[in-house]
Automatic annotation (TrEMBL):
Keyword Oxidoreductase: yes
Organism: Roseospirillum parvum
Chain ranges passing through the membrane: none
Residues at the catalytic site: 261
Alphabetized GO MF terms: oxidoreductase activity, acting on the aldehyde or oxo group of donors, NAD or NADP as acceptor
Record-linked Pfam families: Aldedh (PF00171)
Protein name per Swiss-Prot or TrEMBL: Acyl-CoA reductase
Family the UniProt entry places it in: Belongs to the aldehyde dehydrogenase family.
Residue ranges occupied by any Aldehyde dehydrogenase domain in the UniProt entry: 33-490
Keyword field: Oxidoreductase
Length: 495
């Protein structure tokens, strides 16, 4: 049985509105409550989501717990085959999922949403092929004893995901957890609940009932009870530092492990010998302007050598000015909208704070003039120059299309300033000099460092931060083994 793709996002949003996926079935919240899902490009309501609470959490976790033992008893390669089949089916739904996520998040279809849907499918194909790697070791303890280790699943995993790239970030959590033999309960972001629900619905055509469940709702009423539930043995969370601390405290009371992917204030160092064309393209992509800067890895602090600073700023401004802002579902659109009115006000407040601190806010790209988009949550990208290093936009994560460019003359000074942050998620260095590249790669305080490129998260590249940017890794074999299994030591006395 398979679901036929529906590329009309409005009809699809209406079709799946107002429900969770629990124990293999779409069902309303126990209370019957719902909340609106709004198109940020127009301000119109496109559907609703079930407003989950502790009763819904309990139902989902109990379903997961019932199903998990039988799932774990399947040979690992059989689980892998099922996850691979999920990936294949999701590949058939790329256009459908891309259009729906563009509608509910305001991310442009061509530059962002369709790409995310494609990477989503690839992540399941990647992890499905890793099932054979769930293996232990033999240990040379004593000749008369057979000593070995095995990998076993944790049980029920609670996964809490954000709204900026919800499909991909959900896949980073549920694919390794499922292949490892766990059952999963996902709590979606209230701003973007529909597309991830559709993903889980598609996967439930392949998986046994109860193995993968998803709830929508608000943090305190739905996310909190999920983390605190006594039958949840592991929590994986992507979101803000503040919420990450709350999740960690609750998990600590239960003595269960957590994986956290939190914020970032990623530096980009451009040396005088850098390839200017590559560096400009890297700043455009690295700042995630096509995602409206709504990314933990956004290159929001750019350090440019004085010899090329002015030329770099001029070319970056021109490149951003050439980008088209408009309807996210229009193939001509490069840049869509901010996710919510609250986030839009936050971004505007940071821009105002930067100007008050003496920075020059270079506003780029033209706001859309389509009357149908007059209520849309659009904001012009801003490139700050001459801004103080201690100004709020230069220190704090904005999660909007705002970057700060700083001039430097001394490499050691640039490196020190790049590392002067509570965050440590991602960083890049741009140079033709191999010695500088290697030195910066070792000394930049970040979990994900690149030289002369600024790729987004990819399957098989270990991804995660240090300092306040989080705990643990994702997107790799390491993530599956270290974060979704526990190692058991077995000793057989042969004497």
């Amino acid at each position: 049985m398979s679901i036929t793709p529906n590329t009309d996002p409005y009809a699809l949003a209406d079709e799946i509105s107002g429900r969770h996926m629990i124990d293999g079935a779409l069902r309303p919240a126990a209370s019957g409550a719902v909340f609106n899902v709004v198109n940020p490009a127009t301000g119109s309501v496109i559907g609703s989501a079930a407003e989950g609470d502790a009763d819904d959490v309990d139902a989902a976790v109990k379903a997961a717990k019932r199903a998990q033992k039988e799932w774990a008893a399947l040979p690992a390669r059989e689980r892998g085959k099922l996850i691979t089949e999920c990936g294949r089916r999701l590949s058939d739904h790329v256009e459908e999922l891309g259009r729906l996520i563009a509608l509910e998040t305001g991310k442009a279809l061509r530059t962002e949403s369709r790409v995310e849907a494609s990477v989503l499918a690839d992540m399941f194909l990647f992890y499905g092929g890793l099932a054979s790697e769930l293996k232990g070791e033999t240990v040379p303890f004593r000749p008369d004893m057979l000593t070995m280790t095995i990998r076993q699943p944790i049980g029920v995993v609670g996964a809490i995901i954000p709204w900026n790239v919800p499909m991909l970030l959900m896949a980073l959590k549920i694919a390794p957890a499922l292949v490892a033999g766990n059952a999963v309960v996902v709590k979606s972001a209230e701003e973007a609940p529909l597309t991830v629900l559709r993903v889980v619905q598609i996967m439930n055509q392949v998986l046994p009932a109860g193995i993968l469940n998803i709830l929508s709702g608000y943090g305190p009423e739905c996310g909190g009870p999920l983390v605190a539930h006594p039958d949840v043995g592991k929590v994986t969370f992507t979101g803000s530092v503040e919420t990450g601390r709350i999740v960690t405290r609750t998990a600590a009371d239960k003595l269960i492990p957590v994986t956290l992917e939190l914020g970032g204030k990623s530096p980009m160092i451009v040396m005088a010998d850098a390839d200017m064309d590559k560096a400009i393209a890297g700043a455009l992509g690295g700042m995630r302007f096509t995602r409206q800067g709504q990314s933990c890895t956004a290159a929001s602090r750019i350090f440019v050598h004085a010899d090329i600073h002015d030329a770099f700023v001029a070319r970056l401004k021109a490149a951003v000015n050439d980008m088209v802002m408009g309807d996210p579902l229009d193939e001509k659109t490069d840049i869509g909208t901010i996710i919510s009115p609250q986030q839009l006000e936050k971004v505007k407040a940071y821009i105002e704070a930067g100007e008050k601190a003496g920075g020059t806010a270079n506003r780029c790209a033209k706001l859309p003039d389509d009357p149908a988009l007059k209520k849309g949550l659009f904001v012009q990208p801003v490139i700050f120059t001459d801004i103080a290093p201690d100004a709020p936009p230069a220190r704090e994560e904005i999660f909007g299309p705002v970057t700060c460019i700083f001039r430097f003359t001394d490499y050691e000074d640039a490196l020190a300033r790049a590392n002067d942050s509570e965050y440590g998620l991602a960083a890049t260095i741009w140079t033709r000099d191999l010695k500088t590249a290697l030195d910066a790669s070792h000394r930049l305080e970040a979990g994900f460092v690149q030289v002369n490129q600024n790729l987004v998260v990819q399957a098989n590249l270990s991804y995660g931060g240090i300092k306040s940017s989080g705990v643990g890794k994702e997107a790799s074999l390491e993530a599956m083994l270290e974060h979704y299994t526990h190692k058991k030591t077995i000793i057989l006395n042969m004497g």
